[in-house]
Amino acid sequence: xxxxxxxxxxxxxxxxxxxxxxxxxxxxxxxxxxxxxxxxxxxxxxxxxxxxxxxxxxxxxxxxxxxxxxxxxxxxxxxxxxxxxxxxxxxxxxxxxxxxxxxxxxxxxxxxxxxxxxxxxxxxxxxxxxxxxxxxxxxxxxxxxxxxxxxxxxxxxxxxxxxxxxxxxxxxxxxxxxxxxxxxxxxxxxxxxxxxxxxxxxxxxxxxxxxxxxxxxxxxxxxxxxxxxxxxxxxxxxxxxxxxxxxxxxxxxxxxxxxxxxxxxxxxxxxxxxxxxxxxxxxxxxxxxxxxxxxxxxxxxxx
Length: 303
Ligand code: CP
Ligand code: NVA
Description:
Elements: H1 13-31, E1 43-48, H2 54-65, E2 69-74, H3 86-94, E3 99-103, H4 107-116, E4 121-123, H5 131-145, E5 152-156, H6 161-173, E6 176-180, H7 189-199, E7 203-206, H8 209-213, E8 218-221, H9 233-239, H10 247-250, E9 258-261, H11 273-276, H12 283-302
Parallel strand pairs: 1-2, 1-3, 3-4, 5-6, 5-8, 6-7, 8-9
Helix pairs in contact: 1-5, 1-12, 2-12, 3-4, 5-6, 5-12, 6-7
Norvaline is lined by residues 125, 160-162, 222-223, 226-227, 262.
């Protein structure tokens, strides 16, 4: 298996499915009151250059829940803020911690850390990917709908980091993925081309959100302006206005269709309060499952 988790692309379907199955088991054991201590004496470093509620807390809770410990470093805490080279940071951190969990802007940052690190580097979101989130979302869909193979999953809105990781997952898991994105906001062309080759025609990028949700088992939505795109917020509000996941759009989808949002949500923008608070929406199960997935990831990469 790959030594680092930088995107889903480097992993086989079976390797990705392992994380989901193990997370299901760890969740069940936790709910039964079983204590886990397999990472006792181990330490991870969290290096976060963007804000986070769920990913940070769920990685920390996961590590403590397996008996390990965590050092959290925000952007302003390290010498990276004063331009220390990434290759030096990677080699220094490798002497102290058993893995680095990194949230940053460019994918090249995690790639370079990984190139110089002797311990695993785990991508906790970059501008290009959010691989751990998609694993917890797959776990959530599996809990509600069973195996993903043959399902239709719709992505509504920006062709962003989440969309790119979903495309890579489609290439592995063999579900139908239809992304409805405005012109100019499509997912990464290279990722799309590589995953399409793997997915045998199961990935489509279209313009019309109504067409995307017809027959969908899952509707997936995320913010219109991701972290780092705050200056584009007002322009994006206009461009994406017809991509809101609301009751009218959901009326086009089957009644048993579920709605995923990785959170944080901007109610009244990409999703209405009505849909987010509806029984169809599983956003808080997704949030919980991040912790179980992160346990499975940390255990596999460190133990
Ligand atoms: N879903 C997610 O990654 O949330 P945070 O930004 O709060 O970590
Ligand atoms: N696409 C969003 C996801 C947040 C979890 C962002 O990058 O800000």
